[in-house]
Fold this sequence. Notes:
Blueprint: E1 2-7, H1 15-28, E2 36-41, H2 44-55, E3 63-67, H3 72-75, E4 88-94, H4 96-106, H5 110-125, H6 133-155
Parallel strand pairs: 1-2, 2-4
Antiparallel strand pairs: 3-4
Amino acid sequence: MSVYVANESDAEVDELALSRLARFVLDTMGVDPLAELSIMLVDHAEMERLHLAYMGEPGPTDVLAFPQDELSSAAAHDPVDDEAPETLLGDVVLCPSVAETQAKQAGHATADELHLLTTHGILHLLGYDHAEPEEEREMFGKQAELLAAWRTATAAGSGGPADGATGA
């Protein structure tokens, strides 16, 4: 599983932790190990631009998810064929300055908020939504479950399945 993290904001962010979390979520959700994910951290102005361009809403937001390939192509991958292309899952775009504001309001660390938003964005890439009350319960329940498992794995010192991963 390849996870690329690009910090284009001025915020200091533990990019390796975001990469490890993303790998943990993708592995836990049973995503094809050949999947690729991109996580971008952008400043307030860029997130505001993206939010308006893609969602038609003014002002910045905390997270945007841009799916790329259908997961069916990953499921159809022949494990014997080493030449099969990787599946580009998509991009999760985070705004650390918005995350920092939300973290203060929620009474937790900015890193915790970024972990929540990363998990949220990945779930969107995997087809989860929260437009309807039932969808919201399912998505937010899965999000809470994944974050609790991540905290348990990191508190135990294992760092989850991605412990020791070097590429961000």
